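Hey, weird one. I pasted the Xyloglucan endotransglucosylase/hydrolase sequence into the form twice and got a warning about non-standard characters only the second time. First submission, copied straight from the form history:
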Amino acid sequence: MGQARAHQLLASLAAIYLILGVTQHVTGNLTDDLEIMWGNAKFITDSSGQQAIALALDRSTSSAFRSKKTCQFCRVDIEIKLVPGNSAGTVTTFYMITENPWQFHDEIDIEFLGNSSGQPYTMHTNMYARGQGGREKQYKFDFDPTQDYHKYTIIWNKDWILFLVDDKLYRQIKNNQIYGAPYPYYYPMRVYATIWNADDWATQGGRVKTDWSQAPFTAYFRNYRAISCDLYQASPMCLPGSGWFDQQLDESRKQQLAQVDSSNKIYDYCTDSKRYKNGLPKECGVN
């Protein structure tokens, strides 16, 4: 009984610490955590009075920012308001990547594929480990991601990669290295966000091109938060009960995942048998 109460107390303290830490971080200065990389990127105050970063794309240049710190096993949240109107051909990204040579790099991706006016965005997710990628799944939204900010989350721990939208689970990637499947495990990553032109493939397979008369195309980012929980981290935010850093999926999250798979998923590499002449990737057959 004493041990159970101790665990409960630790979990409660961790939850309080997490709430306080999140509040402090989200209302902090973006320039403490993020830095402009190139192009038409700038820190601004948005219409609600909050600090944000505007990434703009025109015919001459893309734009990007990145985190000042790397992390190995972490939760990263950011709020994004995507390009409105005719965004066909554009891609807005939020991703994590190692600084290894490209042929051995690890990467966890969320890419937002633009579309013609009135047509929905596609959220394209992917993962690379030691240079091996091709783990794409794509989703549509139940809302217009251009009308307001929405929160997008990547959680990466030693067992899972999780993709969330407004705290709703959209995708999981399990660490199946024991079956020979690639998984990013050994190296820290840095967070990036970019906007760029990809009209050779992004919208309807490249059939719809970017309309440069609509430029500049601008996406907005705010309320960035990164919590690192590496294998040796002692932070209260990394204790059992404080997050997903060492947990399996509970029933509520499993139900969310089933609902998204049924209503929002539009592509899954594990069901694309025509793509793989020698059979589906190993992890596709692992339950």
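That's the output from the first submission. The warning seems to come from a hidden character in my clipboard, not from the data itself. The two ends are 36 Å apart (CA to CA).
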